Each structure stands twice: as structure tokens, then as C-alpha cells.
Amino acid sequence: MKLNQIPASKGARHKPTRVGRGRGSGHGKTASYGQKGQRARSGGVKRPGFTGGQTPLALRFPKRGFNKPNRKSWAIVNLEQLDKLQAGSSVDAQSLLKAGVIREILDGLRVLGKGEITKALNVKAAHFSATAKAKIEKAGGKAEVAA
Asked: H helices of 11-103, where?
């Protein structure tokens, strides 16, 4: 048996509605487009957001905010996540990616101070919060800023 020989289940296929084929069909004469007007005419489909010739909604309201063009996106990791790693190991963005702690590196690694750390780790990251750096050094590890 081939894919084109498999019959459709009963009720799976519907016949298309044929409009404009006589009054008896219920969709005759105007083919359910009503009397005159833009929608009844050829090519009378309006784009989404069209408000009938007046100023569009998107232009009626003022612009707000600013998108910084050189904004950096950091891969963020907390100390409670680092505490699951092996003691004495060297931790950087690549090793965290391999361990499955972060999904992607982005513009660098940022270490934040949520949670506690009990193991001495050598952590290399682009940025440390003040509490994260203090907790890492208190546990006997190193916090190195790497570009």
C-alpha cells in the first residue's frame, strides 16, 4: 500500500462551498458578499489594521521608550547553580555550557549572588555582582574577571 492509496476516514473530507451558483444554494446572487461596498468589489480585501481611511491606531499614539543598539545580553548564573559543580574545578562559560547550567553564552557570563556556595571554585566571568564575588572568596575560591 502506498500513501496515495490510503483512503480518508469517513467525515474527514468536506466538499467546498460553491458560492454564486443560484439562489437555491443559499449562497447565490451576491455570493454572501452583501450589497455593494468595498468588500463586495474585486480586490476589496483590506490589510490588517486598516481603519477606513482615518489615521491608523499605530500612528495615533506617541512613540515611547528607546532600544539601545549596542545592548549586551548576558548568560546569567547564580551561586546556587555553581554549588552543584565539583569542588576545586575551574568554571567558565564553556564549562557551564557543557554541564548544561546555561543554554547559550551570548555576550558573556554574569554571576549573581542568589543562594550560598560551599565549595572552592575558580570562576571566570565577564561580570560579578558584589555579593557573588564576596561569597566565592569567602568559600575559598577565586572570582576572575575575563573579557
From this structure: 57-60, 79-82, 93-99
